[in-house]
Amino acid sequence: MSSPVLRVSGTTLTVLLCGLVMAYGSVASSGASETGKQIAEQGAANASAVACAFCHGADGGGNDASGFPRLAGLNAAYLEKQLLSYRDGTNKNPVMASMATSLSPGDLKEVAAYYANLDAVSHVMAPADVPTATGEKLAEDGDFSQRGLPACVQCHGPGGQGVGSAFPPLAGQPFLYLVKQLEAWKSGIRGNDPLGMMKHVAKLLTADEVRSVAAWFAAQPVSQGPNSKDNRKAKLVAKTATPAVHTGPVAHHGEVEPGREPKNIGYFVPPSREEFPDGPFGEKVRQGEAIFNYTNTHEVSRQYVGNEQACSGCHLDAGRLANSAPLWGSWVSYPAYRRKTKTVNTFIERLQGCFKYSMNAQGSKAKHPPAAASDTIVSLVSYAYWLSTGAPTGDSNIAGRGYARVAETSLGFDPGRGKLVFEKNCAVCHGANGEGQWAQGEVVFPTLWGPNAYNWGAGMHKVNTAAAYIKWNMPLGISSSVQMYALLTDQEAWDVAAFMNSHERPQDPRFDGNFSRTARKFHSSKYDYYGKLKKPDGKLLGKDAPRK
Amino acid sequence: MSSPVLRVSGTTLTVLLCGLVMAYGSVASSGASETGKQIAEQGAANASAVACAFCHGADGGGNDASGFPRLAGLNAAYLEKQLLSYRDGTNKNPVMASMATSLSPGDLKEVAAYYANLDAVSHVMAPADVPTATGEKLAEDGDFSQRGLPACVQCHGPGGQGVGSAFPPLAGQPFLYLVKQLEAWKSGIRGNDPLGMMKHVAKLLTADEVRSVAAWFAAQPVSQGPNSKDNRKAKLVAKTATPAVHTGPVAHHGEVEPGREPKNIGYFVPPSREEFPDGPFGEKVRQGEAIFNYTNTHEVSRQYVGNEQACSGCHLDAGRLANSAPLWGSWVSYPAYRRKTKTVNTFIERLQGCFKYSMNAQGSKAKHPPAAASDTIVSLVSYAYWLSTGAPTGDSNIAGRGYARVAETSLGFDPGRGKLVFEKNCAVCHGANGEGQWAQGEVVFPTLWGPNAYNWGAGMHKVNTAAAYIKWNMPLGISSSVQMYALLTDQEAWDVAAFMNSHERPQDPRFDGNFSRTARKFHSSKYDYYGKLKKPDGKLLGKDAPRK
Predict the structure, then answer these.
(1) Considering CB atoms only, which of A279, A345, A371 is closest to B337?
(2) Where a domain ends, among B71, B86, B116?
(3) Interface test mutation site (partner A, options B286, B346, B376, max chain A beta carbons within 10 A)
(4) Does any domain span residue B489?
(5) Which of B269, B340, B344 is the mutation pick for testing A, counting most A CBs within 10 A?
């Protein structure tokens, strides 16, 4: 937020208030915006806009009956963007357009900042007559395999509490508001979503599903800010102890985007989450799923994770999704000979390899991957085994195993071109510097490079592997590895993978102290930037990779 | 062999020779029998018997063209029994009957001792026109699953070199002799086999199979005595390096004993040995099979074995056989919760449990079971996984898993009754004191109790488990776990299991220093004799169990 003294205000009132702020520095130090407060509580000075509070509540908690959203505690940049969208018509709402156009962009920023600074609050009463079982399932798990539909919380964060400036909280928003927004995305009335993500996602939902998912989010408690780390895990524990009872299957989607018809007939179908087994084995399976999704924060597994990664970052839909390196594809294929290790590895050794490389276990509290008999490994093995129920042992050619390939292009791949692809398509989630995003103490969009990313030994550091993963799985909700529908061209996928993997990251744990020997021994592939590309400091990538 | 001076001879010549022996003590010390030599080389003194050498060769190497067997180096007790069988008609052969009846039982013993003392030799030329691929397969692997037919070498020992006094060598015997014997078992002309084993087995072979297996054994090199440890392993290595090329499938058997029709339709069928995969993974699979069969002597695994047991001792047909705790039944069922460990165990932990208990790893060179990433475990896991090719993951109710149960009887079980069952049915292979039998450095019939047996923590030490295994799998070649054909009644199976498991064996590795606490904690089952039965020395079983 800009400082009041440097700000150029568009209203006389604001100038006046600036003086007040200068006189009463304590207000400025609180971060609150008096201009925003004034508009929110009393409307525009020239009466061209009514007070926001009139509809959105004195505390910004929204109006449930009318479906006016809560604003308190939402991200300032998000709120500002919404107001600007009413002005530019990318979100069509006559009332809000009138308000937004009557205020200057500067005023809009002030109002947004004001509401962002309030304590999050909601007065929503979720409708009692709308069943939420389907909505809960879609919100928490999505329907990746049938229609390429990610879980809502995959972007909106744990509990739907919101993530950064692009993914607002859904928890505690009025049922009517949420329904209306999903309908608006579908119809095109609202079109201000990054990459058209919400347009794609909303079109995959039936009217009943829209109501169910809206009712479920409306009923979710509101969290006080994005840094409450306990929220999601408390929920997770509760979920593990007493699984939700689902009363019916997810209805099939009524409307299908052209080209997105389900193509997954023939892919192995793992047992559904409603079929979790009972007893001690079932507990291990559930714990395995939780570890898979929250590897870096789960109390059992976090000691082995030396970065901010979770298994589910590279294996979507909790390891269920075809062509997204599903667990069932691996389970039936191991033990197997691996060129990487030059020997036959068991499934457990393969899992330990994920910790060694993708989780950079060397940098963890334990400093090594979990042992074969550890709770972490036994849980993950139990989960993988259970997910594979019915899959034929030894079918290493099972359809959907690993990632779907992406054809090489005549142009090859280029980090420079990839940078533009990244900025346009990836930065909204992963951050301008690939730093990722967190919410409720959990990683939502993983770090792509730097010390918190996968290390120089991980499979994902190879451009071809990354291109294959990205092409068919990114961005969430648009591309689908099952329907084989992709936003990025092959060329874009290769280039952005090259861009991602031409950044520094933790040292290869096989590094033996001799950089050029390590590069020669393990990084001779043409898809590998280790020891090949110079960084701005003139040093080769990998040369001074952080070792921890 | 009895001492010459104490021996009561039936011939004048022998008395004379006794004097000679007394005068020339060096002959006696060589162990050679002059009476036997005399009869063998020159016939009976009264000319009632021609010299054995006339037909069986001067060196006892047999006569290939006529099909007269080699005698040199065979077990003395075995040879003596055969001669007595000609006398009593349990083996009908007019020529040999004439010879055997013209000599006294004492003379027969002398002749037998004489040949037993010669160096093993054979002059056999295997027939060039009889294909041996089928025979080799039957000899080495049998056809357990289709017709309850164990491998010939399962009783006749590695390479068919013979085991003890009941199982003569087959290697280097004349083709015609072997064919004639198998036909004689079938027809009943020869009926002097223990428990009728050979009668059962021979009836399961077609005429072509008889010829093929005879041709294969005829061609096998003769080993010098039962203590040449390298024979089998050299063969094993060769087999691993260059697998035998089998030119055709095993012909289906033409004659089926009543009640022995194949009932295995519906059991999972593992890939055949002809389908071993290639490359490094295939090598691990082959090594896994070798470790499974020769756990206590294989150079990779022996360091973890603290007794004289191999996996195949309790899992017949190299872990392939339904209702004999096949590997494929376990593979698809793990990880699983186990009451024994009170937690969820992976397949690898289950394997390590076998080493801990059934192999008594504590007493091994390594003093602990193999680690999860050890060559031993990776090989066994590779083998189990490969054997399970096509089996549905998670099908823990797969038909044929574990052992087939045996119903409890109104009499319960009793070691005293079991002793009689054991002596009648089991001692011929496992020895009068359950000590087992070895040949070519390999265990052929495992030790059942004492310091070289499974320990007090092994599953087999439970009477119910042992009864189930014994009922449907013992004796080899008669009972069949697939055809559900059994020699022993339920009562006999329970009683003999009780007899076997009421002997001392290595201490339970869970023993915590307090005998009664260990007994209470781990041995409260009514099927468990640990801490319950008094030994002759007045101490409870398990109290002073050997700890190593």
Answers:
(1) A279
(2) B116
(3) B346
(4) yes
(5) B344
Q: Give B395's contacts in chain A (Cβ within 8 Å).
A: 390
Going by C-alpha positions, the residue among A321, A353, A324 that lies closest to residue A336 is: A353
Residue A286 lies in a domain: yes
> Are B284 and A392 a contacting pair at CB < 8 A?
no
| Domains in chain A, number | 4
Contact state of A337 with B279 under an 8 Å Cβ cutoff: yes
Q: Which of B348, B389, B393 sits opposite A372 (nearest CB)?
A: B348
Are B295 and B330 in a shared domain?
yes
Left (φ > 0), alpha (ψ -120 to 50) or beta: where does B266 sit?
Answer: left
Write out chain A residues lying below 8 Å of B300, CB-based.
Answer: none
Chain B residue nearest residue A336, CA to CA: B281
Chains A and B form CB pairs within 8 A to the count of 106
Cα angle B460, B464, B465; round to 5: 35
Contact (CB<8Å) A344/B378? yes
Q: What is the 3-state secondary structure (H, E, C) of B108-125?
A: HHHHHHHHHCCCCCCCCC
Task: Name which of A349, A389, A395 is nearest B394 (Cβ-Cβ).
Answer: A389
Measure in Å the smallest separation between the Cα of B335 and chain A Cα atoms: 6
One digit per residue, the tens of pLDDT, for chain B of length 548 reads: 333 333 333 333 333 333 333 333 333 334 456 899 999 999 988 878 889 999 999 999 999 999 999 999 999 999 999 999 999 999 999 999 999 999 999 999 999 999 999 999 998 888 989 999 999 999 999 999 999 999 999 999 999 999 999 999 999 999 999 999 999 999 999 999 999 999 999 999 999 999 999 999 999 999 865 433 333 333 333 233 222 232 333 333 344 555 566 555 589 999 999 999 999 999 999 999 999 999 999 999 999 999 999 999 999 999 999 999 999 999 999 999 999 999 999 999 999 999 999 999 999 999 999 999 999 999 999 999 999 999 999 999 999 999 999 999 999 999 999 999 999 999 999 999 999 999 999 999 999 999 999 999 999 999 999 999 999 999 999 999 998 889 999 999 999 999 999 999 999 999 999 999 999 999 999 999 999 999 888 999 999 998 87
- A105 HSE (CA, 13 A, CB side): 7
Could you tell me the end-to-end alpha-carbon distance of chain B, in angstroms, rounded to an integer? 36
Assess if residue A496 is contained within a domain: yes
How far is Cα B428 from Cα B438, in angstroms, rounded to an integer? Answer: 13
Whether B394 sits inside 8 A of A390 (CB atoms) is yes
Q: Check whether residue A84 and residue A48 sit in a common domain.
A: yes
The beta-carbon neighbor of A393 closest among B281, B343, B385 is B385
B126/A296 Cα distance (integer angstroms): 68
> What domain range is B157 assigned to?
133-241
Asked if A386's CB is within 8 angstroms of B344's CB, the reply is: no
Between the alpha carbon of residue A115 and those of residues A10, A69, A166, B300, B461, the distances in Å are: 19, 12, 16, 70, 73
The reply to whether residue A394 touches residue B372, judged by beta carbons under 8 angstroms, is no
Please name which of A449, A440, A431 lies closest in space to residue A307, comparing C-alpha atoms.
A449
A344 is a domain residue: yes
